[in-house]
Amino acid sequence: MLGSASSIQKEEDMPFKAIENPVVLDIENQPKITWGDAKQWNLFAGPDIFEDEGMVLEVAQELKRVTESIGVPWILKCSYDKANRQSIHSFRGPGKKQALKGLERVKSKVGCMLLSDVHESVEVEWAKDVLDVIQIPAFLSRQTDLIVAAAETGKVLHIKKGQFLSPWGMKNVVTKAKEAGNEKVLLCDRGTFFGYHRLVNDYIGLVEMRELGKPVILDVSHSTQVLGDAGSTASGGRSEMSWPLARAALALGVDGLFVETHPNPKEALCDGPSSFPLQQMESMLRNLQNIWRANLES
Asked: Is the pTM value of this prediction over 0.85?
């Protein structure tokens, strides 16, 4: 007779058990968030870029309503600038500092925490007081000066794995932050190059990357990107694939998800094809929370 799942594999052998040093974000007047304790998954979600304050406020208010009703810890994500656009003519926002001030107002109105990405060391100094989590983009995950500058703020760092790096190749990235005095590192996968234009997610790699002792996040939105040809001015995407990727990741037991969402993806000024419709976020998040709870109870 076949044994139970618990008799086949002991709990301490499971890949996504609690890590030794979970990452904690404890901000005054905000609920404490912990990554890596295997008790709750956490969500980074919001628009790809600051198009205008009204749109970001709409998205943030809806996400707060939904996540509070479901019980999923949430941090607003939104870029104040996009420095790695495919074309020099692509939309990058109203200006870095103007957009960051707009995000600061949204953060205050909604009463939420904020993540955004930095692209140069000089940005860190004037962005750090607004951001609760500092993100390092995948293409910049080997930029030593940028990682050190971000680490020296003492903030939680969300570092995306370069599409060109192996999961275990992130060990050197973690070491850079650690040598700068910061152990509060989250590692994020957003797909790996596979042939032309396609990105694939290596779920075994998620397990291997977490063996570095850091919580792991899956970016389900950018993983659905379809990179454009040299003559194209924008990337495509298959946002409908975000949900299957997220379901599999929550079943595996990742520490969190990164999702870009927009009220009208077809009209989005940046990465619309890979942005999940805001109106469908509640259904997706409720489904994902059920998967997580089933995982905990099994």
From this structure: yes
Which residues make Cβ contacts (< 8 Å) with residue 37, sequence separation at least 6? 18, 19, 22
Place of tokens 């042939």: 195
Residues 162 and 151: their CA atoms lie apart, in Å, by 18
Q: Concatenated DSSP letters for 42-90?
A: EEEEE-SB-S-HHHHHHHHHHHHHHHHHHT--EEEE-BS--TT-SSTTS
Distances (CA, A) of 103 to 205, 222, 253, 271: 34, 21, 31, 19
The phi, psi pair for 61, rounded to 5°, reads: -65, -40
Amino acid letter for position 74 = W
Burial of 266 (0-12, 13-18, 19+ CB in 10 A): exposed
Give the residue carrying structure tokens 């680490």: 151
Is the pLDDT at 231 greater than 50? The verdict is no
Closest CA to 276 of 233, 234, 237: 237
Checking if the pLDDT of 228 tops 70, the result is no
Distances (CA, A) of 200 to 205, 224, 228, 247: 11, 8, 16, 15
Say if CB 235 and CB 226 are below 8 A apart.
Answer: yes
Q: Dig out the tokens for 204 from the structure.
A: 């075994």
Q: What's the CA gap between 259 and 277, in Å, rounded?
A: 10
pLDDT tier at 9, thresholds 50, 70, 90:
very low
Q: Structure tokens of 64?
A: 């707060």
In the structure, what pLDDT confidence band is assigned to residue 270 with cuts at 50, 70 and 90? low
In the chain the domains, ranked by start, together with CATH numbers, are: 41-297 (3.20.20.70)
